[in-house]
Write a structure and sequence with these properties.
The protein is α+β, with helices and mostly antiparallel strands. The chain folds into two domains: about 10-85, no CATH class; about 95-175, no CATH class. About 25% of the residues lie in helices and about 30% in strands. The chain has three helices and eleven strands. The chain has helices at about 50-60, 70-85, 165-175; strands at about 10-15, 20-25, 25-35, 45, 110-115, 120-125, 130-135, 140, 150, 155-160, 165. It has a five-stranded antiparallel beta sheet. A hairpin with a 5-residue loop joins strand 8 and strand 9 (about 150). The model has no long low-confidence stretch (mean pLDDT about 90). This is Cell division protein ZapC. Keywords: Cell cycle, Cell division, Cytoplasm, Septation. Contributes to the efficiency of the cell division process by stabilizing the polymeric form of the cell division protein FtsZ. Acts by promoting interactions between FtsZ protofilaments and suppressing the GTPase activity of FtsZ. Its main location: cytoplasm. It is found in: Cytoplasm.
Length: about 180
């Protein structure tokens, strides 16, 4: 079942200084994001805004390939949290392989990043002409000996590192037909 936002939803910092979303009816959603990673005041309590709702539905739509509704909602709510509250990030592109084809992503687009022979799947939650903030949808992955990108971890990368998953799907479809 997909959750539908309403005017009782509220963002707040929980006991563990983790960003939480009160969904009403005694339901809470806990993000993995700690206060030190966020731009919000101690004791913050804010409603789930009209902009949050728009982002939520944009992200849900782009996550249509995930068939489990609970996983779609979890990914969409974490993406809204990053878009709304995450501290600005500096690009960390050096972990990822530069691509021959430059890709300018859209908000909510699922993209790939190549690292150590693997391809991670991420969702774009903020984009500009040169770099994008993304949320990982992959299992936790070591980027090097000391840095790991957890599931729903946020990272900013230059757009020349992004792999269009839509273009890969189209190429694979042509090969099957072809």
């Amino acid at each position: 079942m997909l959750l539908k936002p309403n005017d009782s939803w509220r963002w707040f910092l929980g006991d563990e200084r983790r960003l939480m979303l009160d969904l009403g009816e005694e339901m809470l959603f806990a993000t993995p994001y700690l206060h030190k990673q966020l731009v919000c005041a101690e004791g913050m309590s804010q409603c789930f805004s009209v902009e949050d709702t728009g982002l939520y539905y944009t992200f849900l739509d782009k996550l249509g390939g995930i068939h489990a509704p609970a996983q779609r909602v979890q990914a969409a709510l974490n993406a809204v949290a990053v878009a709304r509250f995450y501290k600005p990030l500096m690009p960390q592109s050096w972990f990822f392989t530069q691509q021959a084809d430059y890709h300018q992503p859209e908000l909510g687009e699922l993209i790939g990043l190549a690292v150590a022979g693997e391809r991670l799947t991420l969702m774009v939650v903020e984009t500009s002409a040169s770099a994008s903030v993304c949320v990982s949808l992959s299992v936790p992955t070591a980027l090097n000996d000391s840095k790991q990108l957890p599931t729903f971890g946020a990272i900013k990368v230059m757009n020349d590192r992004l792999i269009s998953l839509e273009e890969i799907e189209q190429e694979e479809e042509l090969r099957r037909v072809g």
